[in-house]
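Input sequence (550 aa), recorded before submission:
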Amino acid sequence: MFYVKPVKLFTSAICLLGMVFSSHIIASDKFNDVYNDFDISQVKAHIKHLSSDKFGGRAPSTPGGKMTTQLLVDEFKKAGLTPGNGDSFLQPVPLTSIISTPQKDLQIGDIEFTYLKNYVANSRLPQKQISIKNSELVFVGYGINAPEFQWNDYDGIDVKGKTVVVLVNDPGYASQNPKLFNGNTMTYYGRWIYKYEEAARQGAAAAIVIHETKPASYGWNVVESSWSGAQYHLPASEINEPALDIEMWITKNKAEELFKKASLDFQTLKKQALNRNFKAVPLNLKASLTLNSKIAESVSNNVIATIPGSKASDEHIVYMAHWDHLGTSVINGQSKIFNGAHDNASGTAGIIAIAQAFKKLSVAPKRSMTFIAVTAEEQGRLGSRYFANHPTVPLNKIVGLINMDSLNITGLKKDVKVVGYGKSELEKYLAKAAKRQNRTLTPEPTPERGYYYRSDHFSLAKKGVPGLSAGGGTIPLNKKEAQIAKKVGKIVGNCYHQECDEYNEAWGWDGIKADLQLYFETGYLLGNTHDWPNWNEGTEFKAARDAMMH
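Predicted structure, token format:
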């Protein structure tokens, strides 16, 4: 049978499968009983509650955000966990909120731009007003300076005080050449945040990223919803990266219009930009824009709780999930609540369920289990970045991290999708846990989207801590689950960072339960070994891990 208890089945749907339960069973300390007793009704209740309008979309430093952290503290206390930050469950995270509004729309020659419709603009600098005036535009291809790939789009060009125009993603994805960068798999160089940072390092005043749906992996509606309203940032004392005066996106249509105005062909230059010998092209156009900003200082909280290990309490397995979403925004004069049921009320409910499961064991794992619900992930992983800078557990004492960002709601799967497949030895433990469910590990089907660099595990991975992001899969278990996957998959695709990300009884709840069991056992295995799984050879984070462990 598939997903079977030693004694009874956990769901009637699975009862029909007639498959054989894996021999990989842990018989001690009530593990099997706890494994099979995940209360999906309680997970449902938490997701439904957290994604209700009452919480207003769970933005940091809002009443809804404070209600969320209080709920987490109450649940961890009720389950019997101990505070994870000294004598407190809370780790205060200082935030700067900036609401940037154009004084008037972007001006480039006589091209007409309309805010939100075809461009967005923000500044992360805490200034009430900031401008670029007659700033020369330069097309710098993908805007990448990567010595290890013998690539420098800024070679031979001085962009100080100018506005750079850049393509989204990286040359490997665009060319589908496996020998260029990482081929179809996006590197960090393909992320928009890198492009803004590199432009700032080069001395640019502003940068414009050209949006295209496939290489960005989301539509313009996501840019519109994510970049309007309050944008949160860590204070300057916490940031090592430089910042531009103004960061912008424009639609592809406007980019084509802009290049035509410069007597250039957008598609031709895109192709030229795939060559490592590409040279930046001045567009002989100038941009002007003034942003008025409302600035507010506030504090949000990471919530941290621990179950001390029975033998090696100084060594920690970390479970992480972000509790925040986009909050409430006014778009085109209408107030819209982005409730984020899937992203990430699901992961928030999941981290509570797994903490409760570990407390039900008769003997705690040898190593400590630490649960971190972080704030402001949607604003650039701010809560996890702050934790990485101010860890409550020494980073070289974290054995590994399991991140839960949007649980699998598309039903039971035969496989387990691993984001960043092949990066670390943590996958060996995940594979053992998956064997119990007769599942095997498979790489994510869309590595070009760069998901590994888009969630909280990346904040600690950059410091060297091995992080795992996995769940769901690509192959539905049977026809019934395939129908769920088809129906709910459309919702997931259409509702990312949209109002329609709402609680839905039609979700594949058995898939959620199976993945929570998977995460539970993976952490359990790590918690009862003496091993220190590392990054695999050739992974960009291995040097940092090796350095911290010596």
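Checked by second reader. The mean pLDDT is 92.
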